[in-house]
Amino acid sequence: MRTADVGGVAVPVDHFIGGEWVSSPTTFETRSPLDWDGGPIAQVARGDAEAANAAVDAAVAGFAEWGSYTPHQRAEVMHAMADLIEAHNDEIAMVETLDMGFMYESMKNRLVARGAVNFRLYADLIVQHEERAWEAKNMANVVQRMPSGPAIVITPWNAPFMLSTWKLAPALAAGNTVVHKPAEWSPLSAALLAELANEAGFPAGAYNLVQGIGEEVGAALVENPKVRRITFTGSPETGRIIGKAAAQNLVPFTAELGGKGPLIVFADADLDAAAHRAAWQFDDSGQVCLAGSRILVEESIREEFLTKFHEHADALVLGDPRDDGTDIGPVVHPDHRDNVHGFVERARAAGDTIVRGGEPVETSLHYLPTLIEPASNDSEVVQREIFGPVLTFQTFADEAEAIELANSTEYGLAAMVWTTSQERAERVGRALRTGLVWVNTFLVRDLTAPFGGCGISGIGREGGDHALEFHSDLKTLMILNGTVTPTGTA
Ligand code: NAD
User: Fold this and answer.
1) Cα(241)–Cα(160) distance, integer angstroms
2) What is the DSSP string of 429-446?
3) Which among 10, 275, 360, 397 is least surrounded, fewest beta carbons within 10 Å?
């Protein structure tokens, strides 16, 4: 097994296929956004169609064993996996911070810790499942949930560890084997996951990892006809491409895609809390799909809100994400910084007002927290996901206009509403066309609730039993004049 020393952690840089570490003839480099000019931190195996097909074949072979485990046997391995993630939390967090630039403390306490929670959640859910059984007209009926087979899991570069576990845990809990393809801008924590999966006791072929470029190895994975499920998190553009491959092979496909969430503040809101939360949408340099990146404020509190917003935004410290005093780290890659700046430059040229920020930092990959007041609701910065520390600011006259503006993009992932009125909270919450609505809070949620987006923000729902159903084939078994004994998942 080849490894790279990343912050003192030996990180495997090969594929993990059928229980073995496997290299490819070529590699790709990954650099740290903390020290881009310091050169590559790892040379990672660059998978091709051959690696993709080998991984799918390993997942097909591994399915015979993992798919036959009882729910309790699977749960045992998944709890062992969660224990290992907790035991290695610091190392995973450090590798992830170096690889993609999110805050180290937040990685440790929030995102890597959530990785363990994801495995525990699905270990618990899989043993709680009860089959539906009933008798009707001399017929005994039972609905059995069968594992569907090898699943492809493709993940993005932001919060890669947490997002990967969120998708891998339900697939494995359902009894499916997986081939995971992480993003080429942040491939390293996935290798630690594969290493821990091996140690936790997943049998060979249950958990496979291939590294490489999306258009190369990713495309070969999703086009493989032996695959039974595809689950993807990333951009709508890539989602469309993968969706075509899934359709070609008639494979169920779920996609968690981009967002352009409204953050709506009514005049009756706790303004301090709302302005603080609004400024914290710069967190993780805005590279958060759920972020409320469109701030919509009731006209009557415009100035008061802006004053408080700027106070909170002024207090944010840009710096090294490993330092306690830092609030905001760099963006992930120079290309992404240029993408973000491109949006701002076009907004400036189109007559939108740059209220604050609007420039990259010259000496690092940070981008200044930016607020833009668009000339119109049709402005590109309002209608397209930027995925950086760039927020827009608009006002509304009344509740009807707030809802109209909030629902006016093609996206529909998440929304936030700030109000002290219970009636308004429910009225507006119900009127928003998004998969999630938070009122007077953000991010915290019950992981058994459905998670996903409307419009171009996604297809299908993850979370709790929703993801388990996606990874299963349901069978109705009918026995004339017979009996059935309901059990847990087969
Ligand atoms: P991306 O679509 O560029 O890449 C995502 C993954 O797809 C990567 O692993 C990439 O290698 C792979 N890929 C690219 N082309 C492929 C192809 N032709 N076939 C197969 N795989 C291919 O997305 P990104 O830039 O990595 O991530 C940012 C996007 O992800 C944003 O739009 C963000 O909102 C979204 N996102 C959504 C959620 C959610 O839960 N809804 C969570 C995080 C990120």
Assistant:
1) 21
2) HHH--SSEEEES--S---
3) 397
Is there an atom of ligand 1 within 6 Å of 187 CB? no
Question: Interhelix angle for 71-87 vs 160-173, to 10°?
Answer: 160
Q: How many residues are given for the chain?
A: 490
| Euclidean distance between CA atoms 194 and 208, whole angstroms | 7
Residue found by looking up tokens 């084939």 in the block: 473
One-letter amino acid of 132:
R
Task: Fill in the amino acid letter for 414.
Answer: A
Q: How far is the CA of 337 from the centre of ligand 1 (A)?
A: 17
Closest of 147, 208, 149, 200 to residue 182, by C-alpha: 208
Question: Taking a C-beta distance cutoff of 8 angstroms, is the pair 400, 421 a contact?
Answer: no
pTM summary value: 0.97
| 426 CA → ligand 1 middle, Å | 33
Query: What are the extents of the domains in the chain?
Result: 3-257, 262-439
Q: Please tell me if the CB atom of residue 215 comes closer than 6 angstroms to any atom of ligand 1.
A: yes
DSSP string for residues in 87-127: HTHHHHHHHHHHHH---HHHIIIIIIHHHHHHHHHHHHHHH
Judge if the beta carbon of residue 73 lies within 6 A of ligand 1. Answer: no
Q: How far does the centroid of ligand 1 lie from the alpha carbon of residue 406, in Å?
A: 24
Topology (CATH) of 262-439: Aldehyde Dehydrogenase; Chain A, domain 2 (3.40.309)
Q: Write the CB contacts of 240 (distance below 8 Å, at least 6 apart in sequence).
A: none
- 181's tokens: 């393809």
Q: Which two tokens stand for residue 21?
A: 């570490």
Mean pLDDT of each 10-residue bin along the chain, 490 residues long: 97 98 98 97 98 98 97 97 98 97 94 96 95 93 96 97 98 98 98 98 98 98 98 98 98 98 98 98 97 98 98 98 96 98 98 98 97 98 98 98 98 98 98 98 96 98 96 96 75
Residues carrying an active site annotation: 256, 289
DSSP class of 462 = B
Determine how many CB atoms are found less than 10 A away from the CB of residue 215. 11
Is the domain spanning 3-257 CATH 3.40.605.10? The answer is yes
* SS3 category, 219: helix
What the block records as the tokens of 177 is: 């084997």
